[in-house]
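Board notes (copied after class):
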Amino acid sequence: MEDTTTARPATAQGSSTADLVKHLSKQIGRLVREEVRLAQLEMMRAGKRAGLGIGMFSGGGLLALYGLGCLLAAAIIGLAAAVAAWLAALIIGAGLLAAAGIAALAGRAELRKATTPSPDGAVDSVRADVEEIRESARR
Protein backbone atom coordinates (compact mmCIF):
# COMPACT_ATOMS: atom_id res chain seq x y z
CA MET A 1 0.00 0.00 0.00
CA GLU A 2 1.14 3.48 -0.70
CA ASP A 3 1.62 5.94 2.11
CA THR A 4 -1.05 8.53 1.38
CA THR A 5 -0.12 10.72 4.33
CA THR A 6 2.90 12.15 2.53
CA ALA A 7 1.09 12.87 -0.74
CA ARG A 8 0.71 16.59 -1.21
CA PRO A 9 -2.77 17.69 -2.16
CA ALA A 10 -3.07 19.83 -5.24
CA THR A 11 -3.82 23.44 -4.46
CA ALA A 12 -6.26 25.60 -6.31
CA GLN A 13 -3.60 28.27 -6.85
CA GLY A 14 -1.11 26.18 -8.82
CA SER A 15 -3.39 23.72 -10.63
CA SER A 16 -6.11 23.93 -13.17
CA THR A 17 -9.56 22.46 -12.63
CA ALA A 18 -8.70 19.61 -14.99
CA ASP A 19 -5.62 18.79 -12.91
CA LEU A 20 -7.66 18.86 -9.71
CA VAL A 21 -10.31 16.56 -11.17
CA LYS A 22 -7.62 14.20 -12.45
CA HIS A 23 -5.97 14.14 -9.03
CA LEU A 24 -9.32 13.57 -7.33
CA SER A 25 -10.21 10.66 -9.61
CA LYS A 26 -6.85 9.01 -8.89
CA GLN A 27 -7.34 9.41 -5.16
CA ILE A 28 -10.88 8.04 -5.24
CA GLY A 29 -9.74 5.05 -7.30
CA ARG A 30 -6.91 4.33 -4.90
CA LEU A 31 -9.25 4.75 -1.93
CA VAL A 32 -11.79 2.28 -3.35
CA ARG A 33 -9.07 -0.28 -4.13
CA GLU A 34 -7.64 0.01 -0.61
CA GLU A 35 -11.08 -0.35 0.98
CA VAL A 36 -11.82 -3.47 -1.09
CA ARG A 37 -8.43 -4.90 -0.15
CA LEU A 38 -9.13 -4.19 3.52
CA ALA A 39 -12.51 -5.92 3.31
CA GLN A 40 -10.91 -8.94 1.63
CA LEU A 41 -8.26 -9.22 4.34
CA GLU A 42 -10.84 -9.00 7.10
CA MET A 43 -12.99 -11.69 5.52
CA MET A 44 -9.97 -13.96 4.94
CA ARG A 45 -8.92 -13.66 8.58
CA ALA A 46 -12.44 -14.41 9.77
CA GLY A 47 -12.71 -17.36 7.39
CA LYS A 48 -9.42 -18.87 8.54
CA ARG A 49 -10.38 -18.57 12.18
CA ALA A 50 -13.79 -20.06 11.53
CA GLY A 51 -12.27 -22.97 9.60
CA LEU A 52 -9.81 -23.72 12.37
CA GLY A 53 -12.52 -23.48 15.00
CA ILE A 54 -14.85 -25.77 13.06
CA GLY A 55 -12.10 -28.35 12.64
CA MET A 56 -11.21 -28.32 16.32
CA PHE A 57 -14.85 -28.42 17.34
CA SER A 58 -15.49 -31.39 15.03
CA GLY A 59 -12.51 -33.31 16.40
CA GLY A 60 -13.67 -32.69 19.95
CA GLY A 61 -17.17 -33.80 19.03
CA LEU A 62 -15.90 -37.05 17.54
CA LEU A 63 -13.87 -37.87 20.64
CA ALA A 64 -16.84 -37.01 22.84
CA LEU A 65 -19.00 -39.35 20.77
CA TYR A 66 -16.61 -42.25 21.40
CA GLY A 67 -16.52 -41.44 25.12
CA LEU A 68 -20.27 -41.20 25.25
CA GLY A 69 -20.58 -44.62 23.62
CA CYS A 70 -18.39 -46.14 26.32
CA LEU A 71 -20.35 -44.45 29.09
CA LEU A 72 -23.65 -45.56 27.61
CA ALA A 73 -22.49 -49.15 27.41
CA ALA A 74 -21.41 -48.95 31.05
CA ALA A 75 -24.75 -47.42 32.07
CA ILE A 76 -26.71 -50.11 30.25
CA ILE A 77 -24.62 -52.89 31.79
CA GLY A 78 -24.97 -51.33 35.24
CA LEU A 79 -28.74 -50.87 34.90
CA ALA A 80 -29.10 -54.42 33.56
CA ALA A 81 -28.18 -55.67 37.02
CA ALA A 82 -31.48 -54.24 38.35
CA VAL A 83 -33.81 -54.75 35.34
CA ALA A 84 -33.81 -56.76 32.14
CA ALA A 85 -31.08 -55.81 29.63
CA TRP A 86 -33.60 -54.69 26.97
CA LEU A 87 -35.37 -52.45 29.48
CA ALA A 88 -32.05 -50.93 30.56
CA ALA A 89 -31.21 -50.14 26.93
CA LEU A 90 -34.70 -48.67 26.39
CA ILE A 91 -34.42 -46.39 29.45
CA ILE A 92 -30.98 -45.13 28.44
CA GLY A 93 -32.11 -44.65 24.80
CA ALA A 94 -35.16 -42.61 25.84
CA GLY A 95 -32.99 -40.40 28.03
CA LEU A 96 -30.61 -39.81 25.13
CA LEU A 97 -33.44 -38.87 22.77
CA ALA A 98 -34.75 -36.36 25.31
CA ALA A 99 -31.29 -34.81 25.69
CA ALA A 100 -30.90 -34.69 21.89
CA GLY A 101 -34.22 -32.88 21.54
CA ILE A 102 -33.23 -30.27 24.11
CA ALA A 103 -29.85 -29.74 22.41
CA ALA A 104 -31.51 -29.41 19.00
CA LEU A 105 -33.94 -26.77 20.28
CA ALA A 106 -31.11 -24.82 21.91
CA GLY A 107 -29.07 -25.01 18.69
CA ARG A 108 -31.99 -23.78 16.61
CA ALA A 109 -32.43 -20.82 18.97
CA GLU A 110 -28.74 -19.92 18.60
CA LEU A 111 -28.89 -20.18 14.81
CA ARG A 112 -31.78 -17.74 14.73
CA LYS A 113 -29.63 -15.25 16.65
CA ALA A 114 -26.69 -15.64 14.28
CA THR A 115 -25.80 -12.81 11.93
CA THR A 116 -23.93 -12.90 8.69
CA PRO A 117 -20.26 -12.01 8.96
CA SER A 118 -19.33 -8.63 7.55
CA PRO A 119 -16.08 -6.71 7.30
CA ASP A 120 -16.97 -4.19 10.00
CA GLY A 121 -13.71 -2.29 9.84
CA ALA A 122 -13.96 -1.74 6.10
CA VAL A 123 -17.61 -0.73 6.33
CA ASP A 124 -16.82 1.81 9.05
CA SER A 125 -13.89 3.12 7.03
CA VAL A 126 -16.01 3.54 3.89
CA ARG A 127 -18.67 5.37 5.89
CA ALA A 128 -16.03 7.71 7.29
CA ASP A 129 -14.63 8.29 3.78
CA VAL A 130 -18.08 9.09 2.39
CA GLU A 131 -18.72 11.51 5.23
CA GLU A 132 -15.34 13.17 4.62
CA ILE A 133 -16.11 13.56 0.92
CA ARG A 134 -19.51 15.05 1.73
CA GLU A 135 -17.91 17.53 4.13
CA SER A 136 -15.31 18.48 1.51
CA ALA A 137 -18.00 18.98 -1.10
CA ARG A 138 -19.93 21.33 1.20
CA ARG A 139 -16.91 23.62 1.66
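Comment from the instructor: Residues 17-80 form the longest helix (64 residues). The mean pLDDT is 84.
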